[in-house]
């Protein structure tokens, strides 16, 4: 077998089996065939040795990306989103079902999206389906067509084409997903507990007050209750309030199948340092205070929060103008997630292996891609050459997503992605990503 290897990548530092160690990674046919000692590499057609300041990581898996194509391709498209992903060390994304027109709420719409993406993707791309009012009969066909699960909102989604589920509709959708063995992922805020009267134009304090912690916590309690009642799988997307962590911990201890993610912006920024008018930092749920941010870090370190994904939600620059009531709520960060999280993790004494668990292995496992997000024999040879100690200042002109808007502009981050391999080949030249279906390799 060793003589048939296409490539060996040698690294004095590689994240393998949850720890850093020297390693030689042998690749054949796009998959990792063998992982050996650094000093005992197998023969191969080509050998690459990483520099001493580089670490070999598995490609990251980002299960929360809004590509918006078709229908809003001026916001983002498959070409630009996946180029940006590869530049950030992300080799697999799962596209959200909303912000595109049509939304991915029927098999016909899924096929439109797959045709749009075909030939444009620089990394592997899977798709979420959507659960919206009136499409209960579409969930089983979408599940059979290979979506990785279903996204729903418990309040207004922000786009007219993707309605939110009232509590009884959510209960019905959860029962259907439980019967299918499908994962339901939930934007968990209770719209009845929002306080729009608190909105105060350009003042961030007003926007934060309008979306209180209790709105998130109440919605999460509803999700937990339905997961318990149906025996279904539920996942909380973009957790912003650490106040919900104890309830989630207790539910899981009681055997409820509920997982939770947070995002780089909740781990990086804090409300106390968001200037009035800084609508580039508007997202929903909102970025909360510094004490809350530190509690999220503690929850990650303790395993109470499972994973970190970008919630890459771009738009045109004009939609980020105005005040906190009118500006689009979303942050584009698929290219910057790894350095942003690593910068924060390093400052708190956490390891690169932790970041890999949160941003590669756990997201892959969430959606059943056990051949992604790890350096192990049999896995896809999705690899990243990462320089963790090199620092840079974010220049929006160097970002590859479609519209150069980022709250990270001018921020100093640690960690530079120097090269990304997809199935053993450097990303570049021509798009070589695959369109993924749940249950297929």
UniProtKB/TrEMBL annotation:
Broad enzyme group: hydrolase
Domain of life, source organism: Bacteria
One GO term describing the cellular component: cytoplasm
Cofactor section: Zn(2+)
SUPFAM superfamilies: Composite domain of metallo-dependent hydrolases (SSF51338), Metallo-dependent hydrolases (SSF51556)
Keyword vocabulary terms for this entry: Hydrolase, Metal-binding, Purine metabolism, Zinc
Keyword ATP-binding: no
Annotated Amidohydrolase-related domain residues: 55-426
GO biological-process terms attached to the record: allantoin catabolic process; purine nucleobase catabolic process
E.C. number: 3.5.2.5
Listed pathway(s): Nitrogen metabolism; (S)-allantoin degradation; allantoate from (S)-allantoin: step 1/1
Tagged with keyword Protein transport: no
Family matches, as Pfam families: Amidohydro_1
Recorded family membership: Belongs to the metallo-dependent hydrolases superfamily. Allantoinase family.
The protein's assembly and partners: Homotetramer.
Name used for this protein in its record: allantoinase
């Amino acid at each position: 077998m060793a003589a048939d290897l296409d490539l060996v990548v040698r690294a004095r530092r590689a994240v393998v089996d949850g720890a850093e160690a020297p390693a030689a990674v042998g690749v054949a046919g796009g998959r990792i065939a063998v992982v050996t000692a650094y000093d005992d590499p197998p023969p191969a057609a080509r050998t690459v040795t990483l520099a001493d300041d580089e670490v070999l990581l598995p490609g990251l898996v980002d299960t929360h990306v809004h590509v918006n194509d078709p229908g809003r391709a001026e916001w983002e498209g498959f070409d630009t989103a996946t180029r940006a992903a590869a530049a950030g060390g992300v080799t697999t994304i799962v596209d959200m079902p909303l912000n595109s027109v049509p939304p991915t709420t029927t098999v016909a719409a899924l096929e439109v999206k797959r045709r749009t993406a075909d030939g444009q993707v620089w990394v592997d791309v899977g798709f979420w389906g959507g659960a919206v009012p009136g499409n209960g009969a579409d969930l089983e066909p979408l599940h059979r067509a290979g979506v990785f699960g279903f996204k729903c909102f418990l309040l207004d989604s922000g786009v007219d084409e993707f309605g939110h589920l009232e509590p009884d509709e959510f209960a019905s959708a959860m029962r259907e997903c439980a019967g299918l063995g499908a994962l339901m992922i939930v934007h968990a805020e209770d719209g009845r507990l929002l306080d729009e009267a608190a909105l105060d134009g350009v003042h961030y304090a007003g926007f934060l007050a309008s979306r209180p912690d209790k709105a998130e916590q109440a919605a999460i309690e509803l999700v937990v209750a339905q997961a318990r009642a149906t025996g279904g799988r539920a996942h909380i997307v973009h957790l912003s309030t650490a106040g919900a962590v104890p309830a989630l911990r207790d539910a899981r201890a009681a055997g409820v199948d509920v997982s939770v993610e947070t995002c780089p912006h909740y781990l990086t920024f804090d409300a106390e340092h968001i200037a009035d008018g800084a609508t580039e930092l508007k997202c929903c749920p909102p970025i909360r205070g510094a004490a809350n941010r530190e509690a999220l870090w503690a929850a990650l370190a303790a395993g109470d929060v499972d994973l970190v994904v970008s919630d890459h939600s771009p738009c045109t620059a004009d939609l980020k103008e105005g005040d906190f009531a009118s500006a689009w709520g979303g942050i584009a960060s698929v290219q910057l997630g790894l350095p942003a999280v690593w910068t924060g993790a390093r400052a708190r004494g956490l390891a690169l292996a932790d970041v890999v668990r949160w941003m590669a292995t756990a997201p892959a496992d969430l959606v059943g891609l056990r051949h992604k997000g790890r350096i192990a024999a049999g896995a896809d040879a999705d690899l990243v050459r990462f320089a963790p100690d090199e620092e840079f200042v974010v220049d929006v002109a160097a970002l590859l997503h479609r519209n150069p808007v980022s709250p990270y502009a001018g921020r100093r981050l640690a960690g530079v992605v120097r090269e990304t391999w997809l199935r053993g080949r450097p990303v570049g030249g021509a798009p070589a990503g695959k369109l993924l279906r749940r249950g297929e390799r």
